[in-house]
């Protein structure tokens, strides 16, 4: 597969990954290399990665963090910053983030802020990170249960996508990443959406191309609007309500936390309904989207008493402006509209639609 140049980095795939990584290390000659993993990627991905890493006698240190969204915090960042300092990382050190979206988001933020920024490389090991989290330079951590409230936009030197790491991924995490691919189709490309919703006609050999296509879609958007002043906002389809739902389920001890993609799938269904009310999207399109998402994602019980809290959480969404909640909605599949305002009454209607599916 051809590499994909981004604004200041390059995304490499499969057979090129370790060739380009080792070439980068040889050419830049970092003073030290730090590999950030979580408890899962330490066991399942690190041995393969280290076996192909040519460090050229450069000291390599591995830093391990707990796995899971609830550890995507400033406290973990502080631990990683302190470890870098204790091991005498300097401005010529290289940080490699080997993991899913939590590791690439947090690791990118740590690298971008340590000594005002050191070189870093993302090696995504989950489908979510491959198609979304590791590409585009968004780094950061959660503030309590509020998603990605602290961070910077700062790209690393390269993204290395080795799809063999997906063999280590549980099925529910594969499906979680699939939600972001669905989103890419809904906001830009009806043909891509149609392909994704006919997975029963595909086999595993098709997955590499679908991942590649998804990265191309995201990169095209980010390249045109790297700092999210306009077009890049469309990548938030499903995320306004999805993030609020994800935060609510994370902070509520009575709820089972949702994976990111599981929450975004709910958000896309809700925001597809809102699209019919605000943007005039047809009911046929809504049915198409609903059927396509429910093929892969099970409904989640959301009680009426949950809704007030979820709606209150919307005020923390990063797209908001002047106290107004701003949604990305669809005129049709592949035709998004940004900065849409939606009444609370319509949001309650959308949840009624979802709960009655």
From TrEMBL:
Does this entry carry the keyword Metal-binding? yes
Query: What cofactors does the UniProt entry give for this protein?
Result: NAD(+); Co(2+)
User: Ranges for the 3-dehydroquinate synthase N-terminal domain?
Assistant: 63-175
Keyword presence, Nucleotide-binding: yes
Checking Pfam families in the record gives: DHQ_synthase (PF01761), DHQS_C (PF24621)
Enzyme Commission number, as recorded: 4.2.3.4
Which keywords does this Swiss-Prot/TrEMBL entry list? Cobalt, Lyase, Metal-binding, NAD, Nucleotide-binding, Zinc
Molecular function per GO: 3-dehydroquinate synthase activity
CDD domains with a match to the protein in the record = DHQS (cd08195)
Query: Which top EC class is given?
Result: lyase
Pinpoint the 3-dehydroquinate synthase C-terminal domain residues. 177-320
Give the function comment from the record: Catalyzes the conversion of 3-deoxy-D-arabino-heptulosonate 7-phosphate (DAHP) to dehydroquinate (DHQ).
* Record protein name field: 3-dehydroquinate synthase
Which organism encodes this protein? Winogradskyella vincentii
């Amino acid at each position: 597969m051809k590499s994909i140049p981004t604004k200041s980095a390059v995304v490499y795939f499969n057979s090129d990954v370790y060739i380009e990584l080792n070439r980068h290390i040889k050419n830049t000659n970092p003073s030290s290399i730090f590999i950030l993993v979580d408890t899962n990627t330490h066991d399942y991905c690190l041995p393969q990665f280290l076996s192909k890493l040519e460090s050229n006698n450069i000291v390599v240190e591995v830093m391990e963090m707990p796995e899971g969204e609830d550890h995507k915090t400033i406290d973990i960042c502080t631990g990683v910053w302190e470890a870098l300092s204790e091991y005498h990382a300097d401005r010529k050190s290289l940080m490699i983030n080997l993991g899913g979206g939590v590791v690439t988001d947090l690791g990118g933020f740590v690298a971008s802020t340590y000594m005002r920024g050191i070189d870093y490389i993302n090696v995504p090991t989950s489908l979510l990170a491959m198609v979304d989290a590791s590409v585009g330079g968004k780094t950061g951590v959660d503030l309590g249960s509020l998603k990605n409230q602290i961070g910077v936009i700062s790209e690393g030197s390269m993204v290395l996508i080795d799809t063999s790491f997906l063999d280590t991924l549980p099925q529910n995490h594969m499906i979680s990443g699939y939600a972001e691919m669905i989103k890419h189709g809904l906001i830009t490309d009806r043909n891509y959406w149609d392909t994704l919703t006919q997975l029963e006609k595909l086999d595993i050999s098709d997955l590499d191309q679908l991942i590649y296509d998804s990265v191309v879609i995201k990169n095209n958007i980010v390249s045109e609007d790297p700092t999210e002043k306009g077009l890049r906002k469309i990548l938030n389809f499903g995320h306004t309500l999805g993030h609020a739902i994800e935060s609510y389920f994370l902070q509520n001890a009575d709820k089972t936390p949702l994976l990111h993609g599981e929450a975004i799938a709910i958000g896309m269904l809700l925001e597809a309904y809102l699209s019919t009310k605000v943007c005039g999207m047809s009911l046929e399109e809504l049915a198409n989207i609903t059927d396509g998402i429910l093929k892969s994602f099970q409904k989640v019980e959301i009680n009426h008493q949950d809704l007030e809290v979820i709606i209150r959480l919307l005020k923390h969404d990063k797209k908001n402006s002047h106290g107004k909640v701003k949604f990305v909605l669809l005129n049709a599949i592949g035709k998004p509209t940004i900065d849409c305002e939606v009444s609370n009454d319509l949001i309650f209607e959308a949840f009624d639609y979802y709960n009655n599916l």
